[in-house]
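INFO worker-7 received task bundle
INFO bundle size: 2
INFO processing item 0
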Amino acid sequence: MLTGALLILAPLFFGFALPLQNQRLMTVIHYTVEALVYFILALLGLGLGQMEGLTQQLGDMAIQVAALVGVLLVANLAGLWLFHRWQPMSVAQEESAPRPGYQRLFLAGLKPLAAVAFGALAGYFLLPDLPLAEDLATWSLMLLLFLIGLQLRNAGLSLRKLLMNRQGLGIALAMAGSSLLAGLALMPLLALPWHDALALASGFGWYSLSGIVVGDALGPAWGGVAFLNDVIREIIALAIIPLLIARRPAMAIGYGGATAMDFTLPVIRSSGGLACVPVAIASGFVLSFLSPVLMGVFLSFH
């Protein structure tokens, strides 16, 4: 387990404190982040594959993932709908907006699953127990958070403007608040104490973070559940954004969670128009900071 779950916050804020001007270095950081994500997910899969009694636990994991996805989906959409009723947002359709390749986006959404599956198969069939794998995953995650902090600081975004975006901030808070309420409702279903249930509900779509952090604290089975919950959120978001954004933009932007500022942003832009972009970036940015903070705080009680 992490030596104090709050330790994960230090590299994120340290990276955010460092300004960079070198675009070539930022490009290197971008590709390093992408490689680290898949490496960390493969290590998560490795832990799952080498878990004792894996085949017996798969049924329980499927039920836990279904409960998490279902309860969070209902709670998030209800909370975001209420926010939309309180602070309605209209979007102007732009016929000239470029349409992303949805098939390509869905396939990209499956890549994290492939990385975890690769690690699980290697751990189950090929590799012996690797005692340093957990420490390697932890240090890789801390490096990833440091680099993500650098990316957030040097993305050309004004933190003040992001936090002053009332729609984006409100969507993020509605998403976070409804997730925490869902986490409390999930306590008896998951048979977990309140702090662990709230940590599981605080991933907000950031699967590479939640899978490893929860896995370190609660074991590889719960790490797999956290990962699957957040990657399924991303895939569902790709499907519902075009359906909801015209009439309920807060629901469409908010459900994707932290991915609204990166992975789901092209779909938000093409379906809702340019006016949705700053709202989505603000919401995704706030949730990207809240997710490690909340998980670190809740898991520190463990």
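INFO item 0 finished
INFO processing item 1
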Amino acid sequence: MADFEAKAFSGIAAEIAKSKIMAIIPARGGSKGVHRKNVRQIAGKPLITYTIDAALACPLIDRCIVSTEDEEIKRISLDAGAEVINRPLELATDTALSEDVVRHVLKNCMMKGELPKYFVLLQPTSPMRNEKHITDCIDFSLKVHSRCTISVTEAEHHPYKTFYEENGILAPLKNRQSLSKPRQQLPRVVRQNGAIYFMETVVFLEQNSFFVDPVLPYYMDVNSSIDIDSERDFLFCETLMSGSSMTNG
């Protein structure tokens, strides 16, 4: 994007931003790993409704907007209580960037004079992320004046114990000493789980990135961090949900 356009976004954003928080849920109709996963039933509800329900239940969120090009997703989202913004087809391809999708939503809001001060990006493939996670993440971010917070979970495998391959030969990613060190002696390593991205709108419009220093972590447990991308993920998540229902019942 041209510099002058970025500056224009920034200037307008600073002028009309409100002290409100918007949830943005990107949900296209196509998917590679699991066919039409966003509308597929899991534990009795379409996958996307878990994220919509969690967003609407969060007392700190003022608006919940789903960005999609798909008619079935639009209908389900509206029935669940979310607003819908029509996504251009060029932003619904396998190669489309989430940054461009979010920018399209914010630009649409800006044209109506409804740009929020903050937004929280919630991917619909994280059904175990609930309203408490969202509320705690936002509350934490506001209290410490974070302009960028990303939800993370402990990495299952420490990268210092991995190799890279070059010309058929393995070499330590870090060094030989790290391969044999106890995990407790290595730096704490986390991974983004894709569940929550909290950002100040102006910062995102200026940088066009969900990672803008200084980035603060919001920690989530492994089960809550499930990101559905395969049939195995669906089955595992449904098993967890069923077990939770039996326990709570």
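INFO item 1 finished
INFO post-check item 1: The domain at 3-153+191-229 is CATH 3.90.550.10 (Spore Coat Polysaccharide Biosynthesis Protein SpsA; Chain A).
INFO post-check item 1: The helical segments are 3-16, 47-57, 71-80, 98-111, 131-143, 176-180, 201-207, 231-248.
INFO worker-7 idle
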